[in-house]
Amino acid sequence: MDTEILARIQFAFTIAFHYIYPPISIGLGVLLVIMEGMYIKTGKKIYENITKFWIKIFALVFAMGVATGIVMEFEFGTNWATYSRFVGDVFGSALAAEGVFAFFLESGFLAILVFGWNRVSTKMHFFSTIMVSFGAMLSAVWIVVANSWQQTPAGYHIVNNGGYLRAEITDFWSMVFNPSSVDRLLHTLSGAWLTGAFLVLSVSAFYLLKNRHVDFSKKSIKIALSLAVFASLFQLLTGHHSAQGISSTQPAKLAAFEGHYNTSPAPLYLFGWVNNNEQKVNFGVAIPGMLSYMIYGDFDKPVKGLNEFKPEDRPPVNLVFQSYHLMVVIGFTLIGLSLLSLLLLRKDALFKNKLFLKILVASVLLPQAANQLGWISAEVGRQPWIVYNLLRTKDALSKSVGSGEIVFSLILFTLIYALLFVLFIFLLDRKIKHGPDEEVEKDGVYSEQKVIFKNN
Amino acid sequence: MDLNIIWFILVGVLLTGYAILDGFDLGVGALHLLTKTDEERRISINSIGPVWDGNEVWLVTGGGALFAAFPDVYATVFSGFYIAFMLLLFVLIFRAVAIEFRSKQESKRWRAMWDIAFSVSSIVIALLMGVALGNIIRGIPIGVDKEFIGTFLGLLNPYSLLVGITTVALFTMHGAIYLVMKTEGELQNKVRTWVNNTIIFFVICFVTATMATLIYYPNMITHFKDNPSFFLVAIVTMLAIANIPREINNKREFRAFLSSASTIALLLVLFAIGIFPNIVLSNPILENSLTIYNAASSQKTLMIMLIMAIIGMPFVVAYTIIIHKIYKGKVKIDDTSY
Questions:
Q1: Which contacts of A238-243 are long-range, i.e. CB under 8 A and separated by 24 or more positions?
Q2: Can you name the residues that pair with A268 across neighbouring β-strands?
Q3: In 3D, which of B91, B320, B196 has the Cα closest to residue A108?
């Protein structure tokens, strides 16, 4: 196999594996702030148990994220050296900002979050929880900014740098706020919140089914559900806004999302299978003119089709179509599940409905799948470009790295990631089966300090 | 002083921060198998428990800063040292896993396995970093298009291996001193004897490596000849090393630790003076070297990042000090420990 395919497989594999963990950290981070906030506000032991339990899960997930994240930073240089030379001036500053502002913040306060219960005051601990959660989101900001710049480059000019071309920054803030960054950041973050929320829902539903940690689970579900309802609806909004943005910034990608070949008023497919040779969508069900309406508010307005682009400038259509549609289906399922849970909760039926609780247990996989599918849509939809309209993926490789070396590293990563994943699942399972430590005998010392906090 | 020089220094500061901080936790790892009982091993791992992760962030940020400030260096070195960097990643992950998972099961075999993984990976990480440093001193073959044109086996030359072993020795000494600060009682007495042995081991390696450098790579001392005041740095380095056994004998471990931290920093300063203004020396074709000018980002980017660094670094230094202060003192095993 040639180096391009191998390098792409390696990057796709390592980034997909990495991206299992950061969304959980981001989502769970937000929930930890709420949980510990409740503990401080009420002083109730149960909230302390909830917080402590989820911190243990958080620590495990965070460690996985860090271990697999270093790989990503190295891989830009090892496998994509030409890309690194081309984007270093622009991309590098976002990455460096991530390091200086976000990573130190997260990892520093994580030490207090995980190991600090007996070393610092409750307030300091709570402050650390907020900082870790904030740091996790801040790191998402910078990496999504960098990625968005690859999708919709702005604030740069192309310069000949001693024999090869590269992008150099002309305006930092237009690089940061390039046309797609805000939409994509919000969409990514709401996906991450959903991931954390559904993890908590799933584990709590599991306890309820087993009739264990009942009070713990009911309270955890209430906290997680509030985030799930908000995030699933917000996700719809940001997704819609993103699609509108793509119609003007990356029309080839939008056309591939819907398998739309000829510039004309475009339908919105619910599902289908794209035949790229015949340029049509088979077995599809579509609402005529709906895509035009969603983008322009007009059923008859034409949407740019793939035939406007040279064949070598089009992404692989069916893969993008399928991943995009699956993501959307999951998105709506999550909205449905969140709203239904809320409804059942209001009717006081949620905690007794065994079938629904079983569905919630399994639902933990849905946001994970949607995250992966969303990134496939975004990244494969950008092909054949690594930096949209500026640098092709095939021209971005490391010139000094051969296919043998990539095969070697691919085998290495497959082995260690398989090991990592088995260990992760094993430990996660053990932590969940072990459950929270429940010494419910009396509320913590902080219940007596309630007054102090109220005065603040 | 121009922006390129400032960034040469700042990337150096980040990597020095990494060497000092991760240096001691790699050193603790290198010594880990010398502890015998499970309790001792838990003390050893938990001595770095809350801080190792933050220490590693210095490497991540140093790498990010290198990417941003000197993209050509980042691209050439990372793709050129492909196999070496993949092995480095492999052991970095393995080590993180070992620390994280070791104490999660009661089984003796489980723990023994992760203890070995933790120790071996710590040594290999230090070795690989030293080997990389050795190759930068020697110079690596670079083509006109700034691409590495050598081989992986070419990187494993005797001189670079010597620098690698010296790095292991340095970190082991540094880690032993740290461990004296974190332990008490019988274990502390045991660790004290290790400190003396590691000092001897380091000094032997250091003297040999210095002689080899002077004999084979006299290019490293050009600046010292041109500007004799740099020689003061070398003298202070010697004094810092000599001060370590003195402080240890007087049971002033923290001051010994500061001395070994200074030793690491000063050695890197000597290295930086030696290679300046090259970052990656091209050997044999000297004119293909990557310098702080031909490998750098634009002045605008360097300026933007300088502003970021000025805003961000005080926070970074503050977190680092606060965290190490909170966890200072002897290791106490509790329910949040590894």
A1: A238/A183, A238/A186, A238/A187, A238/A190, A239/A187, A239/A328, A239/A331, A240/A294, A241/A183, A241/A186, A242/A180, A242/A183, A242/A184, A242/A187, A243/A294, A243/A295
A2: A287
A3: B320
What is the C-alpha separation between B67 and A218, in angstroms, rounded?
48
How many domains does chain B contain in total? Answer: 1
**Residue B83 touches partner A, C-beta closer than 8 Å:** yes
pLDDT band at A446 (very low <50, low <70, confident <90, very high): very low
- Token pair in block for residue A419: 């090991």
Cβ proximity of A84 and B71 under 8 Å: yes
Nearest CA in chain A to B64: A96
How far apart are alpha carbons A185 and B294 in whole angstroms?
A: 35
For chain A, what are the domain ranges? 1-180+396-456, 186-249+251-381
Domain that holds residue B34: 3-326
* CB atoms near residue B189 (< 10 Å): 11
- For A66-106, the DSSP string reads HHHHHHHHHHHHHH-HHHHHHHHHHHHHHHHHIIIIIIHHH
ipTM of the complex: 0.85
Nearest to B259 by CA among B280, B275, B238, B279: B238
Would you say residue B332 lies in a domain?
no
The label of the residue with tokens 């630790």 reads: B257
Interface touch B53/A71, C-beta < 8 Å: no
Q: What is the dihedral of CA B303, B308, B311, B312, to 10 degrees?
A: -140
Exposure string over B141-153, b if 16+ CB within 10 A, otherwise e: bbeeebbbbbeee
Residue A454 clears pLDDT 50, i.e. is over it: no
Which residues of A fall within a CB distance of 8 Å from B52?
none
Q: Do the domain assignments include residue B237?
A: yes
Closest-CA residue to A235 (of A165, A283, A187): A187
Is B293 an 8 Å CB contact of chain A? no
Tell me the shortest Cα–Cα distance from A400 to chain B, in angstroms.
6
Q: Please name which of A73, A378, A432, A52 lies closest in space to residue B93, comparing C-alpha atoms.
A: A73
Helices (H), B183-296: 185-216, 222-226, 231-249, 253-275
Q: What is the dihedral of CA B117, B119, B120, B126, to 10 degrees?
A: 130
Burial class (CB in 10 A: 0-12, 13-18, 19+), B167: buried
- Asked if B336 and A113 touch (Cβ cutoff 8 Å), the reply is no
Q: Express each pLDDT in A276-313 by its tens digit.
A: 888 888 888 888 888 888 888 888 888 888 888 888 88
B293 - beta bridge partners?
none
Residue A443: per-residue pLDDT: 44
- Taking CA–CA distances from B105, the nearest residue in chain A reads A427
Phi, psi of A164 (to 5 degrees): -135, 160
For the segment A399-411, what is each residue's pLDDT rounded down to a tens digit?
888 888 899 999 9
Q: What number of other Cβ atoms are within 10 A of residue A217's Cβ?
A: 26
CB atoms closer than 10 angstroms to residue A119: 17
Instruction: Compute the nearest-CA separation of A337 from chain B (Å).
Output: 35
- Would residue B240 count as lying in a domain? yes
Enter the tokens of residue B47.
């001595």
Both tokens assigned to B141: 């073959």
Distance, in Å, from the CA atom of A112 to the CA atom of A135, rounded to the nearest integer, reads 14
Instruction: Answer yes or no: is B289 within a domain.
Output: yes
Q: Record the tokens describing residue B305, joined without a space.
A: 């990042």
Spell out the long-range contacts of A204-211 with Cβ–Cβ below 8 A and sequence spacing 24 or more: A205/A357, A205/A358, A205/A360, A205/A361, A206/A361, A206/A432, A207/A435, A208/A351, A208/A357, A209/A354, A209/A357, A209/A358, A209/A361
Distances (CA, A) of A47 to A67, A432, B233: 30, 17, 56
- Interchain pair B312, A74: CB under 8 A: no
Contact status, residue A321 vs residue A274, Cβ threshold 8 Å: yes
Nearest CA in chain B to A409: B86
Structure-block tokens of residue B105 = 């099961």
